[in-house]
Design goal:
Layout (H helix, E strand, L loop, with lengths): L2 H15 L5 H13 L4 H14 L6 H13 L4 H6 L8 H15 L9 H4 L16 E3 L9 E3 L5 H5 L16 H5 L1
Antiparallel strand pairs: 1-2
Helix pairs in contact: 1-2, 1-3, 3-4
Length: 181
């Protein structure tokens, strides 16, 4: 903002609250305008809005607060409707983009996931049922004892799977109290 615009804003504030003109105040307002990136139109609107709803003596912080609040407001529906909406990406185009990114990052896209076979069996560590993710028990806090899914299967589920014909059906599982002993 220019010094002339700051002077016009200050004059507008003077008209509302009968403040006295001061070069020091002009300098202070200019500093706040620069620090908080006021635009002239936003600041003018903020001054009018402040005096429409408040009887407090206007300070630069009031202007900054009102400008930030206005910037956070969503655009009016009419403006949003005027924006051209992009067409959704075709599946082939999307797959090509993913393949390009994978090539640049050096990902091996041809490998099959070793988790697929392991996920078809119960986990020998946490006893998660086939097709269900492995879980871990939370040890601290207000959720203590709660079982939560983990991102990858336990190593014992991957490396040393229990064949389905050797699995014990109805095997007792430890409760939270028994686990803590």
């Amino acid at each position: 903002m220019t010094e002339d615009e700051i002077r016009r804003l200050y004059a507008l504030a003077m008209a509302y609250d009968n403040r006295k003109f001061s070069e020091a105040n002009i300098t202070a307002w200019w500093e706040q305008a620069e620090r908080n990136r006021w635009s002239y139109d936003e600041a003018r609107e903020a001054i009018h809005a402040h005096h429409a709803t408040s009887t407090e003596f206007l300070m630069p912080a009031h202007i900054t607060g009102l400008i930030r609040q206005a910037r956070r407001q969503p655009a009016p529906v009419a403006e949003l409707e005027q924006l051209a909406s992009a067409e959704p990406a075709e599946p082939e185009r999307f797959q090509a983009l993913v393949a390009e990114v994978a090539d640049r990052l050096g990902w091996d896209r041809d490998r099959t996931t070793p988790d697929a076979d392991a996920m078809s069996r119960e986990c020998p560590h946490c006893h998660s049922r086939p097709g269900r993710p492995c879980v871990r028990q939370i040890a601290r806090g207000h959720r203590r004892g709660e079982l939560v899914p983990i991102a990858n299967p336990h190593p014992s589920r991957l490396e040393n799977p229990v064949p389905p014909n050797l699995r014990v059906v109805g095997e007792p599982r430890l409760t939270t109290e028994e686990n803590q002993r």
